[in-house]
Amino acid sequence: MTPEPAVPLWPAGSGVFGSWPTPDVAAGAVQGAGPIRHLFTTRAGGISAPPFDTLNLGGKVGDDPAAVAVNRQRLADRIELPVDALAWMDQVHGTTVTLAHPSATERSEACDGQVTTTAGVALAVLVADCVPMLAADPVNGVIAAVHAGRRGAADGIALRALDAMAAAGSRADQVHVLLGPAICGDCYEVPAAMRDEVEAALPGSASTTDRGTPGLDLRAGLARQLRDAGVDSVLVDERCTYSDLELFSHRRGAPTGRLAGVIWMSKRP
Ligand SMILES: [Zn+2]
């Protein structure tokens, strides 16, 4: 079934992330024809047993490490890079954004965002409802992958990522952002006080769920914050992890696996 076409917040014509949805996005295929490539994985294509079935890429969710290793190798094969080109983060819902090192198979330093200027380094972010934010400045050759959950988003990790990209040579007005699959504002129910607290820190994130209760749409808040920071090109992959059974959702079924958002610069033109 073809997903309903979504209207991007900004016309995507010249965006490095193209438009959404593309015909094969639901299959977790590599996206992008230029040097900047990305993908979001789904549950399909791995070997993990339930409840991590099947392509769990998270190493700290209780899954068999041997299965995770096979799944990560399959991801590497899909993006045609060696497995040690995948840079994973030790994510802690913080706001630290670091420079990824080539061949960083497992980051020892806790962080929730990473940046690189090196072609062939694939930055990976793991999520199951939180927002996977991918960013690229194609002019200056700087990319980032960011884990933006409720806490990190409210604490400003998207802006810290722009800062880290700027430190690596990028300019906000040349940055393109793609906000990936996450729990949507119709589904993400929270207490009213929490909604108000997050809305105060991240204006535009308050929502009402489809049950009429207080909710959060973190991607809406992040998109507004990024626009206010000078990023003109923000595209939202509007898939909802909670309602799309092809994706991992912590809220729908914890314990569960993690999908990955991955961005890299190809060494080939
Ligand atoms: Zn939803």
Short description:
The protein is an alpha/beta fold and 269 residues long. Helices cover 21% and strands 20% of the residues.
The CATH topology corresponds to: CNF1/YfiH-like putative cysteine hydrolases
Ends apart, CA distance between termini: 33 Å
Instruction: Give the ligands present.
Output: zinc ion
- For the largest beta sheet, what order do the strands appear in spatially? 3-4-7-6-8-11
Q: How many domains make up the 3D coordinates?
A: 1
The assigned structural class equals alpha/beta
Calculate the mean pLDDT score and round it: 90
Strand percentage: 15-25%
Number of strands: 12
CATH superfamily: CNF1/YfiH-like putative cysteine hydrolases
H-E order? EHEEEEEEHHEHEEHEHE
